[in-house]
From TrEMBL, chains A, B, C, D:
<feature type="binding site">
    <location>
        <position position="48"/>
    </location>
    <ligand>
        <name>Zn(2+)</name>
    </ligand>
</feature>
<dbReference type="GO" id="GO:0015976">
    <property type="term" value="P:carbon utilization"/>
</dbReference>
<feature type="binding site">
    <location>
        <position position="50"/>
    </location>
    <ligand>
        <name>Zn(2+)</name>
    </ligand>
</feature>
<dbReference type="InterPro" id="IPR001765">
    <property type="entry name" value="Carbonic_anhydrase"/>
</dbReference>
<comment type="similarity">
    <text>Belongs to the beta-class carbonic anhydrase family.</text>
</comment>
<dbReference type="Pfam" id="PF00484">
    <property type="entry name" value="Pro_CA"/>
</dbReference>
<feature type="binding site">
    <location>
        <position position="112"/>
    </location>
    <ligand>
        <name>Zn(2+)</name>
    </ligand>
</feature>
<keyword id="KW-0479">Metal-binding</keyword>
<keyword id="KW-0862">Zinc</keyword>
<dbReference type="InterPro" id="IPR015892">
    <property type="entry name" value="Carbonic_anhydrase_CS"/>
</dbReference>
<dbReference type="InterPro" id="IPR045066">
    <property type="entry name" value="Beta_CA_cladeB"/>
</dbReference>
<dbReference type="InterPro" id="IPR036874">
    <property type="entry name" value="Carbonic_anhydrase_sf"/>
</dbReference>
<protein>
    <recommendedName>
        <fullName>Carbonic anhydrase</fullName>
        <ecNumber>4.2.1.1</ecNumber>
    </recommendedName>
</protein>
<dbReference type="GO" id="GO:0004089">
    <property type="term" value="F:carbonate dehydratase activity"/>
</dbReference>
<comment type="function">
    <text>Reversible hydration of carbon dioxide.</text>
</comment>
<feature type="binding site">
    <location>
        <position position="109"/>
    </location>
    <ligand>
        <name>Zn(2+)</name>
    </ligand>
</feature>
<dbReference type="GO" id="GO:0008270">
    <property type="term" value="F:zinc ion binding"/>
</dbReference>
Amino acid sequence: MPKTARLLPGYMVDRYRAWRALRFEKDRAWYARLAEGGQRPRAMVFSCCDSRVDAVGLFGAEPGDLFVVRNVANLVPPYAPDHAHHGASAALEYAVTVLKVAHIVVLGHSNCGGVEACHDMCSGAAPHLEEETSFVGRWMSILAPGYAKVSDTGSREERLRLLEQEAVQVSLRNLESFPFVKSAVDRNLLTLHGAWMDIGEGVLHVFSAETRRFAPLEIASA
Amino acid sequence: MPKTARLLPGYMVDRYRAWRALRFEKDRAWYARLAEGGQRPRAMVFSCCDSRVDAVGLFGAEPGDLFVVRNVANLVPPYAPDHAHHGASAALEYAVTVLKVAHIVVLGHSNCGGVEACHDMCSGAAPHLEEETSFVGRWMSILAPGYAKVSDTGSREERLRLLEQEAVQVSLRNLESFPFVKSAVDRNLLTLHGAWMDIGEGVLHVFSAETRRFAPLEIASA
Amino acid sequence: MPKTARLLPGYMVDRYRAWRALRFEKDRAWYARLAEGGQRPRAMVFSCCDSRVDAVGLFGAEPGDLFVVRNVANLVPPYAPDHAHHGASAALEYAVTVLKVAHIVVLGHSNCGGVEACHDMCSGAAPHLEEETSFVGRWMSILAPGYAKVSDTGSREERLRLLEQEAVQVSLRNLESFPFVKSAVDRNLLTLHGAWMDIGEGVLHVFSAETRRFAPLEIASA
Amino acid sequence: MPKTARLLPGYMVDRYRAWRALRFEKDRAWYARLAEGGQRPRAMVFSCCDSRVDAVGLFGAEPGDLFVVRNVANLVPPYAPDHAHHGASAALEYAVTVLKVAHIVVLGHSNCGGVEACHDMCSGAAPHLEEETSFVGRWMSILAPGYAKVSDTGSREERLRLLEQEAVQVSLRNLESFPFVKSAVDRNLLTLHGAWMDIGEGVLHVFSAETRRFAPLEIASA
């Protein structure tokens, strides 16, 4: 029994009421259908918890459109069926084998605090993250293999950006390590995609497996 | 190196361009400030990956407002500093100790596929989820202690709803097991909250630690 | 040493105690975080002292959201670095260069006593406001250039409304005269906005630089 | 003609619509009366622009209750009828001689950035604020006489708190320098009050002219 739980913060109640009055009423029939008939999202997104990046808004997703995992640094861990609690892997399994999504997008972003923590840990500047009890340190160690690739690059800023993009590539590679993902991809039932969002510029960069680079999407002219 | 990654699906590119032209342009200054000055969200939410529940929309959150974890069945695992990759725990640690959020909300919902999987697994109806290699089964075992409390209840529908609400309570209890959460709560720097959303009705129910029940929020009359 | 100060009026003490018991307790954690971590408001508002217009309520602002100047007729004076005490300019400088807000809104309103004083002074009907010792007269002379534009218009009521809207435009123009504002606007780090509130109708009108007019916001239908 | 003004930020439009739907509708008759019959506020408050302190909320003020000046550090400048644009003095003149308020409250607060700027400027730690072109510096020089009284006190934190409270006392003294204020006070038509808000603790401290100290208001027991 939770002992310290309190009623919802007042401002959230206010905002919910506004959502209810101004948004829900217009979508009521669709929500009723979705409740009755279940969800059938077309795509899954691995995105960061960061409050500045919202995949639902970015991709104009309507209720029912997007199955979204959000964790620190949008990481997919490697395939490891070891009894442990793997939240991201469970979501992946559910999306691919039960919901049968057609696309999985790994969405990284600029100014990522989790990636910065990984950078500082790997460069020796954050010993507290190396401790066994640091959840952030242990979690971000998934990205540690990516650090070696960027550690020689010029400025800290450049290294961080490259490491953020490594996070997307490491996750894509890890995705491919799940047998049920590989199987669906091989049968052309599933496609994998990587992208990286520049928060300040509002520009989405897309990963190309051919060039092994991220290139900015052209923005429609007004 | 990921081998099978493809460019972004065309409909997502279109949606992104619409977001860029219609939304980003209006918020450009704020995004620039957020990129430069970092995020400082007031609250954290544990929400489900489900495509029908979007905490950002529900709480009218603007860029920078809400730090969001999304995993199957909005679960917080118990405190376990055991070297493993704990995505939810890492996000929690980052939100409380680095970002210093003031509130954490666990947001459950109706028609939850993850909770249904737990129900079926615990009642013996889904042996494949009991296998060691089932990520969904292992992940949902976090909620298994909650099943005992609801297994005697009338209809399957009633049991599922109660188990969805148990998922919120189990997560709240697990939150309290993290030393840094307990410390912040004890010093009045952090409050914990539980809620459960009825998708079809569009009604948010709030957990009260006093009554140990979820009660629907009154909707403002016009 | 102030000689005549008295303890707070009893009704204010009562209201404070109610705020403390009913509002503060729920937001305690957030206030503690705001005190410790400092404010970081997204927007600044220039609003009137008028007791009938409250920007905080109108824009549903939570603690920490809105940096607010309130003076008679929501005026921004022109840029004038002349050693004098410029309260509004000091607030503007602090908001833009220290707090780095992303938006500045000038919020005018109907039935404005300050604007009416300006109208009567400029039309010769209020000679006492033309005296050097009239603070209201001197302050409202900031808006005097706007009077010429409306002096030919039909009824007194129409002239007052137009002059209230001129007050917003004059302030926007004066905002642009501050070098640090112009610089931030030019770099897309700051946006300027004008609005005018009809108190009796409860309708907010928004200024468009294209049409040079104020148009009422559509109110969402249920 | 303002050149760079843009339509209102989208989130403010959303928040306004929520205010309109959920708040205005309930108060519509009162707003209509207030628009038609004019405002008649009982009290005036000098408060800070700080986004964390909202006198309207703190004193549970309804539309029409409170005439509010907000400037950096809630300062009343000394009486100086010198042709210049004195926003605070104009508001004061209007409130006392036209609206005929019964009370004026100067409301200071903890963690005040304006007061901190004054402290650093007076102690020589912020030479840029001493420049003639610094609006914050010139404005905060109103409080400079107060710095001498606190400069010998122990810690920086203690000095800042005392200087915040000096800001209230300086403003009260300046209020008394206005002939129309003195006259109204002498005829028992107006009372002056000083208070200081501790943001983190949510405790209001009230100034006593007898003890020359600020004492916390007792909080009603639950």
